[in-house]
Amino acid sequence: MKYKDKVDPEFRENIFNLEYAWLLYSKREYEKALKTIKNVEDVNYNYYLETRKLLMRIYYETYQIVELFGLIDTFNHFLKRSTLLSNNIKNDFLNFTSFLNKILKIRINEKDNLDEVKKIIIRCKNVDGKDWLLEK
Q1: For residues 101 and 4, what is the distance between their CA atoms, to the nearest angstrom?
Q2: Percentage, residues of the chain above pLDDT 70
């Protein structure tokens, strides 16, 4: 909050809300983070990527399974259709959603082995949120 006034007014509210939502998430105040993240406008792909990444984490932590599967699906479609994103960024996020999907299925008692998925995540060079995924 101390530096909020130093940010360009055009981006100030979005940046503040996005960073505040990440702070609330890190404090495990998931409901407050969810309310705050909804105040971030997707004015460009950076905001879109960051808000979706945080939403997926919040949905995972609050066990909102249906919402999470839906978000993973729509996010993957966005990534695959986007012409604005580099292939590296697309692959990082597609790997993230792929691994999150596998971890989620294990969490809801499907047959895959979590240790095997973690070994694959460790070997994967390009994955956004790698440390977070490994904690799950």
Answers
A1: 36
A2: 94
